[in-house]
Design goal:
Length: about 230
């Protein structure tokens, strides 16, 4: 299993570009700048049209993308019954398998299965799901991801209420002694990122703030600098 806390103790500022915003007609070129950049993880959004009202890409695409990078893959499954795909995600070489709390009836078991497969377990909460739903498993997870938009689409407006939620999650992690990193997904840009950093975020997923920009490598650098808590 990979080490997620690469910056030692304390708060992190890891950037995980979301491939959903990429030009799919030219993935090779998109992966080229990604590999050259200071991006830490690659965020891969899988949607099934059931758990969320959209469909993105599946394993045939992911297998090709996985061969184009050595950086950790952060696979965000916006699907029902994600536990059915633990071994397929592992076979991609993914470092982090990310499941929604709302999609897992037996979340504790699913986290165990992800760990047994040699991956880090991330659990995501939709905007309407309270942080308190993680109270019993917070010490078993490696990453908690908060959706800061409703899942399913890129380039949506950041939900302001998320800042309070990040602070509540930071409190829970501190109180319980959990080692979990806090990740956020949706509406992350140069304006929202420093505010999220101040609230206690470690990992920043960003799609439309990076892809399609004239210099995405410089955008990653700028975002990372803005998120550093000094
Ligand atoms: C939304 C996805 C996000 C999305 C973020 O359902 O989970 O990862 O790509 O896109 P931006 O950064 O454009 O809000
Ligand atoms: Zn995502």
């Amino acid at each position: 299993m990979i080490e997620l806390r690469t910056q030692g103790a304390g708060q992190h500022s890891l950037i995980s570009p979301s491939l959903l915003a990429a030009n799919f007609a030219n993935l090779q070129l998109e992966m080229e700048w990604f590999n050259r950049s200071e991006a830490d993880w690659l965020h891969l959004d899988v949607m099934d049209g059931v758990f969320v009202p959209n469909i993105s890409f599946g394993f045939p695409v992911l297998e090709h993308v996985a061969r184009l990078t050595q950086k950790p893959l952060d696979v965000h499954l916006m699907i029902v019954q994600p536990e059915k795909f633990v071994s397929q995600v592992r076979d991609l070489g993914a470092a982090i398998m990310n499941v929604h709390q709302e999609a897992c009836v037996h979340l504790h078991r699913t986290i165990q299965q992800i760990h047994e497969a040699g991956m880090r377990a991330a659990v995501t909460l939709n905007p309407s799901t309270p942080v308190s739903t993680l109270e019993e498993i917070i010490c078993d997870v490696d990453v908690v991801m908060l959706m800061t938009v409703n899942p399913g689409f890129g380039a949506q407006k950041f939900i302001e209420h998320s800042l309070d939620k990040v602070r509540r999650l930071r409190e829970l992690i501190t109180r319980t002694g959990s080692q979990a990193l806090i990740e956020v997904d949706g509406g992350v840009n140069r304006t929202t990122a420093p505010r999220l950093a101040a609230a206690g975020v470690d990992v920043y997923v960003a799609g439309s703030a990076l892809y399609g920009k004239p210099d995405p490598v410089a955008e990653v650098h700028a975002l990372k600098q803005l998120c550093l808590i000094r």
